[in-house]
Amino acid sequence: MANHPRAALITGATSGIGRELANCFAKDHYNLVIIARDQQQLERTAQELREEFGVKVLPLAKDLFRPEAPFEVYDEVRDRGIRIDALVNNAGQGQYGLFTTTDIGRELDIIQLNIGAYVTFTKLFLKDMVDRNDGMILQVSSIGGELPGPLQAVYHGTKAFVTSFTEAVREEVKEHNIKITSLLPGVTDTDFFRKADMERSKLVQGSRADPAKVAQDGYEALLAGKDKVISGFMNKVQVAVSNVIPDSMVAANLHKMGAPVDGDESAHQGTRY
């Protein structure tokens, strides 16, 4: 048992997998620093966590599309004297549609959120963890990082980066007492699809995984020190099959599975947050 109050920092913690991961840490008596853009939603989430679990919660409203935001979070946490024992990089978005018709400005924002923020938070907090030889990092990636994703080309590309980046950094710090795990969910019942204008995709018309189950899978894998965990049996099967057939066939199959029900593959106006 640590001789100081344990704390976890979680991005995108007000809904979906991030919110459920906050529950996992709070149940184990971690104090929390939660990051999202909407101040009111953050305050409401923080109060719910305090009341249910009796932990301290610091809500920080930051727009992680801004490259400066992770540095600002790190400085504020440090200035408050909070030691982060567990970092959870979870916030991420996508955009649905043909790459030739999607908004490049939004895609550059998504790259900053899905990659830039992950890299910056990881570097800042990992350096502290290495110095004290203790810490944990959970990177929420996606099975999309294992599969080429037509109609979500940029999102899948960002998640491929996250998984590869995490594996490399994990190797670099393997001599330290630091656990680094990638969580790879599939289609999950979150707000991701509305924000990506993806609700018209055939992929999300069927069943979606419970974000609480996905979060629990990731949390248990992190505590066990696993390299990565694919949440859900059928997602494991899909990734395994993709490893033995040509990428061109994987892409063609996923294109059919993810096609819009209305047949219009062009990008519509998505929701930034």
From TrEMBL:
Keywords of the record: Oxidoreductase
Database matches in Gene3D superfamilies: NAD(P)-binding Rossmann-like Domain
A Pfam family annotated for this UniProt entry: adh_short
A single GO molecular function term of this UniProt record: oxidoreductase activity
Domain of life: Bacteria
Family: Belongs to the short-chain dehydrogenases/reductases (SDR) family.
PANTHER family, per database record: ALCOHOL DEHYDROGENASE (PTHR42901:SF1)
Protein name: Short-chain dehydrogenase
Species the sequence originates in: Hymenobacter arizonensis
